[in-house]
Specification:
The protein is mostly helical. The chain has helices at 15-28, 40-43, 50-67, 83-91, 97-101, 104-110, 119-133, 147-163, 210-218, 238-251, 255-262, 267-293, 296-325, and strands spanning 2-8, 33-39, 74-77, 139-141, 173-175. A 3-stranded parallel sheet has the order 1-2-3. The chain has a two-stranded parallel ribbon with strand order 4-5. Strand 1, helix 1 (15-28) and strand 2 (33-39) form a beta-alpha-beta unit.
Length: 329
């Protein structure tokens, strides 16, 4: 079982990233062969300054390392493994315009300005396909918003294998952890917690200090009603449900047990308990992150070591793809 996943190098990582993805990745290291990468090539599809991109790559790598990603996995930044971009170009001969035109995220991100959007924004699902196919990934951790892109990768793999009469690419399966919670904004329980949200009060950043974490939770949106004795009773109370979900995820408990503990109590009692829990879980991650960022060169060296391992795995697949299409003579 080989798991491959990446995360874009833009903005600070936050509690939603940690509970929804990173902590799942940490656990996967003992269960599978894992490759985790910083998607710096994907970041080029948006407006990002060179210095910001370079800094974000190191900072996000340090965040993953502080969270528990270590030598059990292969951690690297995408640009250090040229096979990603080379295979992407080959696969663009296989992918079809109609397939890419149907990508929901392309429609959402380009909006009404499709003529002004970058070519990279249109074709980046092909690079995503190359990201996983170059390692012959068997499984890819995905959220609901990425399932369509994994289906595209499977379509590309199937067409390539068929067109060139090879059995090169296995079809990667989605890996959706039932334990991964969907963490919403602290200001709007109907919107996902996001690093692109203008208000910093909408999220807890992994670099936030203890007082900031406590303040954000204290000021988070909730309601005046008491907590019920059933988690299902929060179905129509999105902000309340989000705060209970966060508590349960941080404590690694079932949400039902949380509402049973706090049933009949209001958020004046619940929020301080949630703040204490959040600080106890996140403070050690932040402290490790701060130490890592004091030696950015060492973080870069760790990425280089991971890239060497990733290059060794990617090279045979790229060579086989080149041979299949006639580029190896």
């Amino acid at each position: 079982m080989r798991v491959v996943s990446g995360i874009q190098t833009t903005g600070n990582l936050h509690l939603g990233n940690y509970l929804g993805a990173i902590r799942q990745w940490v656990g996967m290291q003992d269960q599978s062969e894992c490759l985790f990468f910083l998607a710096d090539l994907h970041a080029l599809t948006g407006n990002v300054s060179p210095q910001e991109l370079a800094n974000s790559t190191i900072e996000m790598a340090a965040t993953l390392m502080a969270s528990g990603i270590d030598d059990r996995a292969i951690l690297f930044n995408q640009a250090r493994v040229p096979a990603h971009a080379e295979l992407c170009w080959i696969l663009q001969g296989t992918a079809r315009m109609g397939w890419l035109n149907r990508m929901t995220q392309w429609k959402d991100k380009a909006g009404k300005n499709r003529e002004g959007a970058s070519v990279g924004l249109f074709t980046y699902p092909v690079l995503q396909a190359a990201d996983v196919l170059v390692y012959k990934a068997t499984h890819v951790p995905v959220g609901e918003d990425q399932k369509q892109h994994l289906e595209l990768a499977r379509d590309i793999a199937t067409k390539f294998n068929t067109d060139f009469g090879v059995d090169l690419f296995p079809l990667p399966e989605p890996l959706i952890s039932k334990a991964a919670p969907r963490i919403m904004s602290l200001r709007d329980g109907s919107a996902k917690m996001s690093k692109s949200e203008p208000s910093d009060m909408s999220r807890i950043n992994l670099i936030d200090d203890d007082d900031t974490i406590a303040t954000k939770i204290r000021k988070s949106k909730s309601d005046a009603d008491l907590l019920p004795d059933s988690f299902d009773g929060l179905a129509e109370r999105p902000e309340a449900k989000n705060l209970v979900t966060i508590y349960a995820a941080l404590a690694e408990r079932d949400p039902q047990s949380v509402v049973e503990e706090f049933a009949g109590r209001g958020f004046g009692a619940f929020k301080p308990a949630l703040a204490d829990l959040a600080v106890s879980v996140l403070a050690p991650v932040r402290d490790r992150l701060t130490r890592l960022l004091d030696d950015r060169a060492a973080v870069g060296a760790q990425l280089a070591k991971g890239a060497a391992r990733a290059n060794a795995l990617a090279a045979p697949t790229l060579k086989a793809a080149q041979e299949a299409v006639g580029l190896q003579v």
